[in-house]
From TrEMBL:
GO terms for molecular function: 4 iron, 4 sulfur cluster binding; metal ion binding. It comes from Shewanella pneumatophori. Keywords: 4Fe-4S, Iron, Iron-sulfur, Metal-binding, Repeat. This is 4Fe-4S dicluster domain-containing protein. Pfam families: Fer4_11. Residues 5-34, 51-82, 83-112 form the 4Fe-4S ferredoxin-type domain. It comes from the Bacteria. The lineage of its organism: Bacteria, Pseudomonadati, Pseudomonadota, Gammaproteobacteria, Alteromonadales. InterPro entries: 4Fe4S_Fe-S-bd, 4Fe4S_Fe_S_CS, ET_IronSulfur_Cluster-Binding.
Length: 190
């Protein structure tokens, strides 16, 4: 793998506006009843007037050791050359093993195609054109940074090298490629 695409979600800069969800839905023709990405708003925490919220991105974690790929009997769930966990609709037989195997519970059945679906960093649209994923391009607070972590000069590499970050459920050995900068109380800070 020459590229290692990763996404960083800065929980301090996120305001829970859902612009990422709307852009993803538009770019990827996601039906209204399902979502590839959302920001869950948790809280409020604290005591008035010092209340704060936590903004938690929920999307495919693009695991390097993806359980969904391992259980797929037909190879419909696969990892492409850039390391993006993908789905080949033509090979899918609808067994739903991939949906059941995802420890992050982000795969869903697209009600129009009847095939499992999830975030793929807009690989067939925006990435194919050399652009960032739709969610990254519309974020009004620059809470999302995307790029090739193997490129030592990339913005995403600089963020990972200089900011404290974490990944969800690392104890499962999935090696997720969505990183989070942990929230500090009080909202947006530079």
């Amino acid at each position: 793998m020459t590229k290692r695409y990763v996404l960083v979600h800065d929980e301090n800069k996120c305001i829970g506006c859902q612009a990422c969800n709307v852009a993803c839905r538009s770019e990827n023709n996601v039906p209204e009843s399902v979502t590839r990405i959302q920001v869950r708003i948790e809280g409020p925490y604290g005591n008035f007037p010092h209340l704060h919220f936590k903004y938690n991105r929920v999307s495919c974690e693009q695991c390097e050791n993806a359980p969904c790929v391992k259980v797929c009997p037909t190879g419909a769930a696969y990892v492409n050359a850039d390391g993006i966990v993908s789905i080949n609709e033509k090979k899918c037989v609808g067994c739903l093993y991939c949906v059941a195997a995802c420890p992050y519970k982000v795969r869903f059945i697209n009600p129009e195609t009847r095939v499992p679906d999830k975030c793929d960093f807009c690989k067939d649209t925006r990435l194919a054109r050399g652009e960032e994923p739709a969610c990254v391009s519309v974020c009004p607070t620059q809470a999302l940074v995307f790029g090739d972590a193997n490129d030592m000069n990339s913005e995403v590499r600089k963020v990972l090298d200089t900011k404290n970050h974490y990944q969800q459920k690392v104890n499962l050995g999935t090696e997720p490629r969505v990183y989070r900068i942990p929230s500090r109380k009080g909202g947006i800070k530079a």
